[in-house]
Amino acid sequence: QFRKKRLRFGRSRIHEWGLFAMEPIAADEMVIEYVGQNIRQVVADMREKRYAQQGIGSSYLFRVDHDTIIDATKCGNLARFINHCCT
Asked: Could you tell me the residue range of the domain that residue 50 belongs to?
């Protein structure tokens, strides 16, 4: 179990949009679950090309392991906007 963290969605200097922590979050704490469609690499490659052809500037493909990628581009949650920050 975990308590939902206070987060803010907005413009990011790193990559168009971002999700910002509004409170300190420890390295071992859960922030938010990355949600989307589980797909294979071959499907991810096709989707990446299709997204570019459609003019979708950002795709949100997150590699879980060698065989699994989560595509949150069209059916994800706010987790897709998380960018890392050293601070």
From this structure: 7-81
- The upper half-sphere exposure of residue 38, i.e. CA atoms within 13 Å in the direction of its Cβ, equals 5
Half-sphere exposure of 8 (CA within 13 A, CB side): 7
For the chain, the domain total comes to: 1
Predicted confidence at residue 38, as pLDDT, reads: 97
User: How far is Cα 75 from Cα 79, in angstroms, rounded to an integer?
Assistant: 11
Residue 27 lies in a domain: yes
Could you tell me the pTM of the whole model?
Answer: 0.76
Torsion, Cα 68 50 85 65, to 10 degrees, reads: 10
Q: CATH code at 12? A: 2.170.270.10
Residue of 59, 79, 83, 82 lying closest to 71 (CA atoms): 59
Contact 39, 47 (CB under 8 A): yes
